[in-house]
């Protein structure tokens, strides 16, 4: 099958993909409004035989033409991914192209080590209660946002917390965070709830927060504070002393990957979150193979683009140990694919490559 990768690249084109969220998304602990959807760079690679693959740009690309004339199997291996780190900008486009050339989905290329369906969560529950500035809408709008995700098939929701870090007084913000989580739990008692602090908590405040919502049964606490061993140890000791089961998820924001992996190996981080695109599919493949069997879970960060949810879904089916996938809701202009969220579960297509058609 790898003989099919013997063909040569004839063109490489950069293009943009435009995302449209279902609504304007508000602030988190550190960033202002996230707006109605970003434009992101992508790359389309074609071969002399007329096959085409495309994907989001996986990093800086100074010279797209450098791939023209190369054989696909000179730069890509089905068992590894991209062979030269300098070509990681083409990581997703080359996985897509390799799938199309060999008639396989990306999840099959990755080994089909995961489950066929994967749980997903709606990652769009931000601080919309604080907007607009002149007439904040309060907690009701957060509940409306959760209902909207529920109507779209989601049964798990990641709630942004840390209002006291930038936008409200420390005590007032903490209190609002607690009220929001409690209100969502009361209104949607069967929903799985996750929280994301965007590193806006002290260690003490993180523990206080978990104690304040102990009865909610949170699934995970993402990035409570900038990860450091002492803080993570105190959090782990607190969890042990209470018998709590909340998972600690980290590694999204500017991770020192080796260090975060060491924290995970020491039982201080349960779920590794490096970004789907920022870290990259080829590096994730290598890391997942290294972690295999260790019990460390992964959930590549996908926020920002629905296409990243599709990529993370393929990784979940393909790689072992993806615990859940971040669902980014919205439309991508001119792109269709057989991805669906039903009753909280994401299904991914078996069509070649990522199965994302440009229409
Ligand atoms: Mg996050």
Automatic annotation (TrEMBL):
<dbReference type="InterPro" id="IPR029017">
    <property type="entry name" value="Enolase-like_N"/>
</dbReference>
<dbReference type="InterPro" id="IPR034593">
    <property type="entry name" value="DgoD-like"/>
</dbReference>
<feature type="domain" description="Mandelate racemase/muconate lactonizing enzyme C-terminal">
    <location>
        <begin position="139"/>
        <end position="245"/>
    </location>
</feature>
<dbReference type="InterPro" id="IPR029065">
    <property type="entry name" value="Enolase_C-like"/>
</dbReference>
<protein>
    <submittedName>
        <fullName>D-galactarolactone cycloisomerase</fullName>
    </submittedName>
</protein>
<dbReference type="InterPro" id="IPR036849">
    <property type="entry name" value="Enolase-like_C_sf"/>
</dbReference>
<dbReference type="InterPro" id="IPR013342">
    <property type="entry name" value="Mandelate_racemase_C"/>
</dbReference>
<dbReference type="Pfam" id="PF13378">
    <property type="entry name" value="MR_MLE_C"/>
</dbReference>
């Amino acid at each position: 099958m790898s003989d099919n990768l013997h063909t040569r690249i004839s063109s490489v084109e950069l293009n943009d993909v435009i995302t449209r969220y279902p609504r304007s998304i508000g602030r988190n602990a550190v960033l202002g409004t996230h707006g109605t959807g970003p434009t992101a760079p992508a790359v389309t690679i074609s071969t002399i035989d007329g096959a085409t693959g495309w994907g989001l740009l996986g990093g800086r690309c100074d010279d797209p033409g450098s791939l023209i004339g190369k054989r696909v199997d000179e730069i890509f291996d089905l068992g590894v991914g991209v062979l030269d780190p300098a070509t990681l900008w083409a990581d997703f486009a080359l996985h897509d192209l390799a799938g199309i050339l060999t008639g396989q989905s990306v999840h099959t290329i990755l080994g089909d080590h995961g489950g066929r369906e994967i749980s997903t969560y709606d990652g769009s529950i931000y601080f919309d209660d604080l907007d607009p500035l002149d007439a904040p809408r309060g907690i009701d709008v957060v509940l409306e946002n959760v209902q909207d995700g529920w109507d779209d098939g989601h049964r798990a929701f990641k709630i942004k917390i840390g209002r006291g870090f930038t936008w409200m007084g420390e005590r007032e913000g903490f209190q609002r965070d607690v009220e929001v989580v409690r209100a969502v739990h009361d209104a949607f008692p069967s929903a799985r709830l996750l929280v994301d602090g965007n590193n806006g908590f002290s260690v003490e405040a993180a523990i206080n927060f978990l104690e304040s919502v102990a009865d909610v049964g949170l699934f995970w606490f993402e990035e409570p504070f900038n990860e450091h061993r002492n803080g993570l140890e105190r959090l782990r000791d607190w969890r042990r002393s209470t018998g709590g089961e909340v998972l600690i998820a980290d590694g999204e924001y500017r991770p020192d990957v080796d260090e975060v992996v060491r924290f995970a190996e020491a039982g201080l981080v349960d779920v590794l979150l490096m970004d789907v695109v920022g870290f990259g599919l080829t590096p994730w493949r290598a890391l997942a193979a290294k972690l295999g069997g260790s019990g460390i879970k992964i959930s590549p960060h996908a926020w920002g683009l629905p296409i990243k949810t599709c990529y993370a879904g393929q990784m979940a089916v393909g790689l072992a140990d993806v615990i859940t996938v971040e669902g980014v809701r919205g439309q991508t202009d001119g792109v269709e694919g057989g991805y669906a969220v039903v009753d909280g579960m994401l299904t991914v297509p078996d069509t070649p490559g990522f199965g994302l058609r440009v229409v």
